[in-house]
Design goal:
mainly beta; 0% helix; flat
Length: 62
């Protein structure tokens, strides 16, 4: 499992297990509730602002 980290996290430089890598640091963008996309389990349930982050990942056949 991989975790992504917000770029403005004040604790990024205090990572004791060295899991924070530059490619896992993301910019989270605030979004209004009315912009939540259709087709998700939460689509009609989000009634407040939320944060969005976009990233690509590649699955490697093991």
């Amino acid at each position: 499992m991989t975790e992504v980290f917000p770029a403005d996290d004040p604790y990024l430089d205090q990572d004791t297990v060295f899991g924070v890598r530059p490619d896992l640091i993301m910019t989270y963008r605030p979004q209004p509730a009315c912009s939540f996309p259709d087709g998700f389990a939460l689509s009609d349930k989000v009634d407040g602002p939320y944060a969005r982050v976009d990233f690509d990942f590649t699955l490697v056949r093991g």
